[in-house]
Specification:
The chain is α/β, with parallel strands linked by helices and 456 residues long. The chain is built from 13 helices and 14 strands. It has a nine-stranded mixed beta sheet with strand order 4-14-5-6-13-12-11-7-9. The chain has a three-stranded antiparallel beta sheet with strand order 1-2-3. A two-stranded antiparallel ribbon has the order 8-10. Helix 12 runs antiparallel to helix 13 (435-455).
């Protein structure tokens, strides 16, 4: 209105249009706060997006999960086995619930979720029944250091060749493996040069090449194999070794076998095609699955963070989590802004309103709608109920009962009441009573109300 105030969102428009037609716009303090917060939210989202783009494929530590298609993941091995016709599946429960199958890959499980002693024991029982378990342990701290070197000093992590120490079915077509990392699987006592009594079934021990690894290699401990699988570790013999020590050990276990690996990089998307790594893996898988390829091959994903205990939020990518968080924050800002006044309160008019304005507006509404019959019915019902209440009669009392009650007090007033009730019935029966007749009748009701109140 002219000279008043109007509110549009968080903008207060003061005054009317001037001679030039311009309007004076003022953003309130609360509106400015919301505006700045939204700008900060947009800036944060932009920085997060740029940060993700800069990160590219770099990860703070390797994630050897078959869901990971980056260089550190093992999705390449999973898809390769699947395309070669093997039945592969992901196991998302503890190793104590490992289903039927022939081969299981337990690759770097300690990084996200540690394997319990009960799970290691269950795995040994599972292998005894003629199955193969690939177990590759990885120290998270050492893995993080290697990841840092991948980004800043890649030349320091050149893969080294590891030659087979046995000749047999597992080594068919395998001249050397390529491994990366500082862990060597050396024996804790004496030399770990293989002996003729402990070689894998179906293989022959080669002539000694003059190698001997005394105690633990200075490059790193044995990846906690002695602690996780002590009996398997003691029964194992080196299968492949480089110039610093063994990198793969073999342990016959019941009717099955364990293959202990100190370099999970061997299975990664980056390392699988190096040297004869893939050939060696396929040889071992083929030995236990068979040419018909009917047995299941499991990839342990439970210890990489995927499992029945986890919620959807826990497995949601970080960028999606940030997006959901920003939406929640935006919703909270909207609710906060909607609950606050964004401008100065509208000034009250100097004129005081009276009840007559409401009555006049209501009467005008009824008049324009030609609702005289509705008015008659409403006034008639209200009058009868009020009269019955005043005379201590039931609300459903008949006209004769009302007249008789009034006649006992004032016969003259009873005659007027009888006539008014007759007029009421006539007006209610009419389809569209005239306004003048309704006004006269309403005046009669008002007068009767006052007279009845006087005689009671």
């Amino acid at each position: 209105s002219e000279g008043g105030f109007h509110t549009r969102g968080g903008i207060a428009v003061e005054g009317g249009q001037g001679a030039s037609g311009d309007m004076n716009l003022h953003i309130s303090r609360d509106g400015a706060i919301v505006f700045v917060l939204f700008l900060l939210l947009i800036a944060l989202a932009t920085m997060m997006f740029v940060h993700e783009e800069r990160q590219e494929w770099f990860e703070p530590f390797p994630r050897r999960t078959s869901y990971n298609s980056r260089p550190t993941g093992t999705k390449g091995l999973y898809l390769t086995l699947k395309r070669l016709g093997y039945r592969v599946a992901r196991h998302q429960a503890p190793l104590t619930a490992l289903p039927e199958g022939k081969v299981v890959f337990v690759l770097a499980p300690e990084v996200i979720r540690a394997v319990t002693s009960a799970e290691w024991k269950a795995l040994t029982e599972w292998v005894k029944e003629g199955r193969l378990a690939w177990v590759a342990l990885e120290d998270p701290e050492r893995a993080a250091e290697e990841q840092w070197a991948v980004k800043h000093s890649p030349k320091d992590l050149t893969p080294t060749p590891a030659e087979p120490l046995w000749r047999g079915e597992l080594m068919t077509g395998v001249r050397e493996l390529k491994v990366r990392g500082g862990v060597r699987l050396s024996s804790e006592s004496g030399t770990s040069t293989p002996s003729a009594e402990s070689h894998p079934e179906g293989t022959e021990a080669p002539e000694s090449k003059g190698r001997g690894w005394i105690g633990l290699s200075p490059l790193g401990e044995a990846a906690d194999f002695p602690k996780a699988l002590p009996e398997v570790w003691r029964a194992s013999v080196p299968l492949f070794a480089d110039q610093c020590g063994p990198v793969v050990r073999y342990a016959a276990w019941g009717e099955g076998a364990f293959l202990l690996v100190g370099s999970p990089w061997l299975f990664s998307n980056e390392g699988l095609d190096k040297g004869d790594n893939l050939t060696f893996v396929l040889n071992a898988v083929e030995t236990f699955v068979g040419s018909r390829r009917e047995g299941l091959i499991w990839f342990d994903e439970y210890h990489h963070g995927y499992g029945k205990r986890l919620t959807l939020w826990q497995v949601t990518p970080r960028l999606v989590k940030w997006g959901v968080g920003q939406l929640v924050l935006a919703l909270l800002l909207f609710l906060w802004g909607a609950s606050r006044r964004f401008t100065r309160p509208l000034p009250l008019s100097g004129q005081e309103r009276s009840r007559a304005e409401y009555l006049e507006s209501l009467a005008t509404l009824f008049q324009r709608a030609r609702a005289t019959r509705l008015v008659v019915n409403q006034l008639a019902e209200t009058f009868r109920q009020d009269l019955a209440t005043a005379l201590a009669l039931p609300a459903a009392a008949s006209n004769e009962e009302l007249v008789a009650s009034v006649a006992s007090r004032d016969p003259t007033l009873a005659a007027r009441l009888r006539q008014t009730l007759t007029d009421t019935s006539r007006l209610r029966a009419a389809s569209a009573p005239e306004e003048a007749a309704v006004l006269r009748w309403a005046g009669q009701l008002h007068s009767l109300r006052q007279e009845v109140a006087r005689i009671l």
